[in-house]
Amino acid sequence: MSQLWDAETARRYDTPGVGMFAPELLRTTADRLAALADGGRALELAIGTGRVAVPLAERGVPVVGVELSPHMVDQLRTKVDEATIPVVLGDMSSATAPGRFSLVYLVFNTIGNLLTQEDQVACFRNAARHLLPGGAFVIELGVPDLRRLPPGVQATVWLDEPGYLALDTYDVLNQQLVSHHFRFGDGTEARLGRTPQRYVWPAELDLMAQLAGFELESRDADWDGAPFTAESRSHVSVYRLPG
Ligand SMILES: C[S@@+](CC[C@H](N)C(=O)[O-])C[C@H]1O[C@@H](n2cnc3c(N)ncnc32)[C@H](O)[C@@H]1O
Fold first, then answer.
1. Where would you tag: which of 20, 178, 192, 204 has the fewest CB atoms within 10 A of its CB?
2. pLDDT of 242
3. Angstrom distance (rounded) from CA 126 to CA 221
4. Given the DSSP bridges, would you call strands 215-220 and 131-142 parallel, antiparallel or unpaired?
5. Considering the domain 2-143+200-240, what is its CATH architecture?
6. What is the pLDDT of residue 1?
7. Ligand 1: distance of its center to the CA of 167 in Å?
8. How far is CA 58 from CA 22, 48, 80, 144, 208, in A?
9. What is the dihedral sign for C-alpha 80, 85, 86, 88?
């Protein structure tokens, strides 16, 4: 998986001010996480280039990261040094960061990057292992788009912009999808990025959390706390360990 997040991908990852880097999204995300950290330390699993960790640290929350790709960490280091946001290079289902935390979080659909149920359960257990009693584990994850797949259709186009097409192909037997991102200009050449994922229903996520000793505290449709409904495309779920 780490070769997916290579130097070129890492260099292009940040889109300052737009998409997942929109200031309003980052503000509500960091505000909610800072409140959940409740004066304690936070651990981001798969910290990437620090999209969320940097604004969270700017709110005075001590943040530590775990990350598989050294290239993503190189980009993070263009923003903050090791003393400000230390990072452990390793797999989020098994790596250990020193100390205990009041908050562990894993955002932007990234639990799906673990391609087996076993690894996803291990990730929940790893989050629990890093938390203080009463600590919270926050997951942001898309709801699988299977309602858009009529019989015989195995792909959904979910983004169609000038110069950018994105589609997911599904293997529903094995609960896997591959996100394909095609970026192109006026010519005939396109750049293709592909990310395999194991998609997860909220109910399965809750069961994994239960196996690791968590209880579901809340599930919202976004970082602002909009109600999660049958039409929600994504969710922010807060799991908590007993105090
Ligand atoms: C979609 S990016 C999210 C980065 C960051 N959390 C954010 O919100 O912008 C996914 C990140 O997960 C990392 N990653 C993928 N599999 C991982 C694993 N098993 N352990 C740790 N990091 C992983 C990738 O290297 C990449 O930085």
1. 192
2. 98
3. 25
4. unpaired
5. 3-Layer(aba) Sandwich (3.40)
6. 53
7. 20
8. 17, 17, 10, 33, 32
9. negative
Please tell me the distance from the alpha carbon of residue 169 to that of residue 196, in angstroms, as a whole number. Answer: 9
Residue carrying structure tokens 């010519």: 187
36: buried, middle or exposed (CB in 10 Å: 19+, 13-18, 0-12)? buried
- Across the chain, which distance is largest between two alpha carbons, in Å? 59
178-181: long-range pairs with CB below 8 Å, 24+: none
DSSP letter assigned to residue 50:
-
- Any ligand 1 atom below 6 A from CB of 67: yes
Q: Which of 8, 68, 75, 124 to mutate to test the pocket of ligand 1 (most atoms within 8 A of CB)?
A: 68
Q: Residue ranges per domain, the chain?
A: 2-143+200-240, 146-196
The percent of residues above 90 in pLDDT, for the chain, comes to 98
Cβ(52) – ligand 1 distance below 6 Å: yes
CA dist 181 to 33, 111, 119, 195, Å? 29, 19, 25, 9
Structural element, H or E, at residue 198: strand 190-198
The residue whose CA is least distant from atom 6 of ligand 1 is 47
* Per-residue confidence (pLDDT) for residue 2, from 0 to 100: 52
Is the pTM value of this prediction over 0.85? yes
